[in-house]
Amino acid sequence: MQSNDLAQLPLRQRIKARAERLFGAWGVFFKGFLKHPVMVGSIVPSSDRTIRKMLAPVPWKDVQLFVEYGPGVGTFCRPVLDKLPRNATYIAIDTNPDFIRYLRKTIPDSRFVAVHGSAADVEDIIASHGFAHADFVLSGLPLSTLPGTVADEIAQATHRALRPGGAFLIYQFNTFTTQLLRPYFERIDRGYELLNVLPCHLFWGWKAQDESAAEHGNR
């Protein structure tokens, strides 16, 4: 948008446009946190170390569909796209329309699809894009603060949406995730990243390779 175009906008839109120009992703992220603090896990995006450690177990050459819940302003998006095969798809799901608009505007990659919707509807969302299952699902949603049974509904839906041998990757600021994943995932690996604001717990919930032979629960 040129400066003369900006002058033609109403005052509120001019302020918003100038803020986005001045602060970029940080401004959009901060605005999202103020509008929906329960749905945004942190006021500060994840560190590079957290991103590398969280994504390290993914065998990228085998990935056809990668899904993310709560992508925010895309902190993980470029690192994932840098590793994703050329013929793969990356679906990012967020309930905040400001984040979705920002992602669509700033990530011009044909593999990337930003969806305004709920993580609990992941099965319908991936099916609408032609997929039966996701290979990996990443989430930074603040699961312990979600209302009612929403967190459990997301865990169940994610387990159903994943292919056998796939994994649910979660980064959080507390250990609530372990009890959330335990009923549905065969193995739960854990990590910790101190150099993050705030220090971050990392979880990888692996779906059994053979669901018919596996019992629910963490071995």
- The share of residues in extended strands comes to 15-25%
Span between termini? 55 Å
In DSSP terms (H or I, runs of 4 or more residues), the helix count works out at 8
Number of separate structural domains = 1
Instruction: Give the neighbour order of strands across the main sheet.
Output: 3-2-1-4-5-7-6
Q: At the fourth CATH level, what is the homologous superfamily? A: Vaccinia Virus protein VP39
Tell me the radius of gyration: 18 Å
CATH topology: Rossmann fold
CATH architectural designation: 3-Layer(aba) Sandwich
Largest sheet: 7 strands, mixed
CATH class placement = Alpha Beta
Quick one: overall form? globular
Question: Overall pLDDT, averaged?
Answer: 83
Notes on the protein architecture:
This protein is α/β, with parallel strands linked by helices. It has a single domain (38-206), classed as Rossmann fold, CATH 3.40.50. 37% of the residues lie in helices and 21% in strands. It is built from 8 helices and 7 strands. The chain has a 7-stranded mixed sheet, sandwiched between helices. It is globular. Residues 1-6, 37-43 and 212-219 have low confidence and may be disordered.
